[in-house]
Amino acid sequence: MTGTTSQIATDIRDRYQDDGYVILDRALSPTEVDELRAEALRACRGELGAIGGHELPPPGEADDETIRRYLCIHFPHKISALFRATLAHPAITDVLTQLIGPNVKAMQSMLFTKGEGKPGQAWHQDEFFIPTRDRSLTAAWIALDDATVENGCLWALPGSHRRGVLYPDREHDDERFDCTNEAYDFPYREEDAVALEVPAGSVVVFNGYLLHRSLPNTGGHGLRRALANHYMSAESLLPWQEKPEGIHSGAWDYRDVVQVAGQDPYAYKGTSDIAVPHIRRDRDGGCAK
Q1: 93 found inside a domain
Q2: Residue 124, domain extent
Q3: 142, β-bridge pairs
Q4: Contact criterion met (CB below 8 Å) for 106 and 258
Q5: Is 288 within the bounds of a domain?
Q6: Cα 42 to chain center, whole Å?
Q7: Is 36 within the bounds of a domain?
Q8: Does residue 203 lie in a domain region?
Q9: CATH of residue 95
Q10: Angle at CA 107, nearest 5°, toward 105 and 111?
C-alpha cells in the first residue's frame, strides 16, 4: 500500500469492513521469516520444551522428514520466546489497534506445517470455536512460505462476516479436510470464494465471523508453513475453554492471555496458565488451516 499513513490506515479499515480481511504484504522481513521457520523445526524436533503428543525423531532423520510428521502445533508461544514475541509484532499490532481498538489481547497461537498431501479445513468461522461474541475476534495468519492454491492457501468468502451470524455446523467425511465439521446453509456462493495467495512474510488479518477454508497441499514443491494467532478486545471477557467448577454462568473469563497492545482493564484478575502445547495430526479431532 502506498500513500500517507492516515490514507493507508483508512484503506485498511475500509477493506476490512467491506471484505472481512486485509492482506499485509511482506509485513515480516525475510530474516524474520527464516527465524520463524528455524524455530518451527526446533519445535518439531522437541528442542523447545514439552509438547503433548510429540515423539522424538529417530536418530539421523532429515529435517524435512521431521517437520512433515506434523500438521499443527497448538500454543507454540508457550514454549518459544520467539513465537510469543511474534504475537506482538509491531506490523501486526499496528493494524489490530486500528481494527479492534487500543487494547488488544491474544489467546491462541497455532503453527501449521502442512506438507505435501496434508489436508485443509472445510468452511468455518473462527468465532464458532472461540466464543468472544463481541465481534472483535481477529486472526493474523502469517505465511512462512509462499501460500498458493497448489500448496493449500486460505480461501475466503468476502463480506461473509458482515451479518455477525454464526452458521450451522455439521459433520462430514470429506478426506480433503482434517476437521470433521463444516459450516453450511450460509447465503453465500462457493464460486464467489477468493484464493488468498500471498508471498512468505505476508499476513492475512481476518474477522472471526468470516467464512474461510483451506484445501490440501496438492503440490510437489514443499511445505506450506504458517503461524496463526488469534486476538480480541481486552475490554471483553472471554468465555472460552471449559468453565471451572463453581463459576456461575456468564462470569467465566479465560485468562490465559497475552496483552499485545495497550492496557489490560482486567489486569487485577491476573493471568492463568491453562493451555498446553500439543501436536495435532491428520483427522484426530482437530482442524487445519
Answers
A1: yes
A2: 5-280
A3: 203, 227
A4: yes
A5: no
A6: 20
A7: yes
A8: yes
A9: 2.60.120.620
A10: 125
Predicted structure pTM score: 0.93
**Amino acid present at 213:** R
Count the Cβ atoms, other than its own, within 10 Å of residue 56.
Answer: 10
Number of folded domains in the chain? 1
Map residue 206 onto helix, strand or coil.
strand
Determine contact, residues 155/214, Cβ cutoff 8 Å: yes
Q: What's the angle, vertex CA 32, arms to CA 26 and CA 35, rounded to 5? A: 140
CB 88 within 8 A of CB 140: no
Query: Is 154:202 a contact under the CB 8 Å cutoff?
Result: no
Q: Mean pLDDT over all residues of the chain? A: 92
- Let me know: does 205 contact 138? Beta carbons within 8 Å: yes
Q: What residues contact residue 179 under an 8 Å CB cut-off, 6+ apart?
A: 121, 122, 124, 283, 286, 287, 288
C-alpha 58/C-alpha 17 separation (Å) is 49
Predicted confidence (pLDDT) per residue in 236-265, tens digit: 999 999 888 877 767 899 999 999 999 999
In terms of Cβ atoms closer than 10 Å to its own Cβ (0-12, 13-18, 19+), residue 181 is: middle
pLDDT for position 248:
76
- Return the biggest CA–CA distance within the chain: 54
Nearest partner of 153 among 188, 204, 106, judged by Cα: 204
The DSSP letter of residue 14 is H
Read off the C-alpha cell for 261.
497492545
| Average of per-residue pLDDT across 100-116 | 96
- What pLDDT score does 285 carry? 42
pLDDT per position as a tens digit, 30-83: 999 999 999 999 999 999 999 999 988 998 999 989 999 888 999 999 999 999
Q: Name the band, by pLDDT with cuts 50, 70 and 90, for residue 284.
A: very low
Contact (CB, 8 A) for 132 and 252: no
Which residues make beta-bridge pairs with 259?
105
